[in-house]
From TrEMBL, chains A, B:
This is Recombination protein RecR. GO terms for molecular function: DNA binding; zinc ion binding. It comes from Vreelandella sulfidaeris. The gene is recR. PROSITE patterns: RECR, TOPRIM. May play a role in DNA repair. It seems to be involved in an RecBC-independent recombinational process of DNA repair. It may act with RecF and RecO. InterPro entries: DNA_Rcmb_RecR (IPR000093), Rcmb_RecR (IPR023627), Rcmb_RecR_Znf (IPR015967), TOPRIM_dom (IPR006171), TOPRIM_RecR (IPR034137). Belongs to the RecR family. Gene3D superfamilies: 3.40.1360.10, 6.10.250.240, RecR Domain 1. NCBIfam families: recR (TIGR00615). CDD domains: TOPRIM_recR. A zinc finger (C4-type) spans 57-72.
């Protein structure tokens, strides 16, 4: 026996979420149908609306439904400091760690020529234009401490070399091969304070 | 900094799911927006449709979008055996354990007079009508091995006493205070085979 087609479809659909296997997906489907129909309806409506309306900030490429995000619009951030991250989740982790008061630029990935992901796919034209404006004095290359993240940081460093901005990289409090998103706030915060000049070769 | 209002709403909305705290909800929202928009749209549509269309089977009260569920309609199940469970998740756990070939009746809860949950709220009128049809020879009271589950089993036993059906309870392979839904299949299967006559007092 399996459940009815629609209940089975609901269980399957939850598996699109990260870390959700068959057993968890079953529990989620049952929970919504048995105890949380209003919350489930709200979840469905918000997912739908967010997928339709949330795009990239025109200035920093973070996720937002506005043309320009709240952080880019804030007058209280330091225009001279620009932190480049691979994902909005990394940006969130750094913000929650506290201590960094500059602006961000979100790549949504890293260079991966074999997958057809080149500089423009990760917004490097927009990043260069931003630095060319002349306000940025230091670019913190906070890509992941993985092979791809390092390669992307090196590429950006050579791309921006002609503008004479200071380039830095997070201090290695973060384990090699790890993902920023899962590093605790204290470690991230220390890594930020201990950031080093970026040596591009 | 927080994300834009709509992204924040999306993160909040995921917290309606069981076992999803703030950090997991953030990861789910980011994952959908960054990597799984088609899957997210499908999830939203299926949640919406399931909440609108899935109700209770008119015969056994399990979750289904049909009037009568597939299991009730199957000619291959034994009408003489009726297993009473608290939830569709318990029914699913027993089915996945295998071995039981009878029919089910789903209470969607247990008696809880202080919360206003009386016999009709958990379908006991429908259960009595089912037994009164005369086909059922044994009712397996597979409510949870909790105080409320035991009390509900006792209530049902006295309600059905006049019909002369055999009453049984799962053998205690399941730990007292536990929830059937989380018991492994082997234990459940053994508990089924070792079921005992129900002693109502
Ligand atoms: Zn922005
Ligand atoms: Zn049914």
């Amino acid at each position: 026996m399996r459940f009815s087609p629609l209940v089975e479809q609901l269980m399957d659909a939850f598996r699109v979420l990260p870390g959700v296997g068959p057993k968890t997906a079953q529990r989620m489907a049952m929970h919504l149908l048995e105890r949380e129909r209003p919350g489930g309806q709200r979840l469905a409506a918000v997912i739908q609306q967010a997928i339709e309306e949330v795009g990239y900030c025109q200035r920093c490429r973070t996720l937002t439904e506005a043309e320009v995000c709240l952080l880019c619009e804030s007058p209280r951030r330091d225009d001279a400091l620009l932190c480049v991250v691979e994902s909005p989740a990394d940006q969130l982790a750094i913000e929650e760690a506290g201590g960094f008061k500059g602006r961000y630029f979100v790549l949504h990935g890293h260079l991966s020529p074999l997958d057809g992901i080149g500089p423009e796919s990760i917004g490097l034209d927009l990043l260069e234009a931003r630095v060319a404006e002349g306000l940025v004095e230091e670019v913190v290359l906070a890509t992941n401490p993985t092979i791809e993240g390092e390669a992307t940081a090196h590429y950006i460093a050579s791309q921006l070399a002609e503008y004479g901005v200071k380039l830095s990289r997070l201090a290695y409090g973060v384990p090699m091969g790890g993902e920023l998103e899962y590093v605790d706030g204290g470690t991230l915060s220390r890594a930020f304070n201990g950031r080093l000049p970026f040596a591009s070769e």
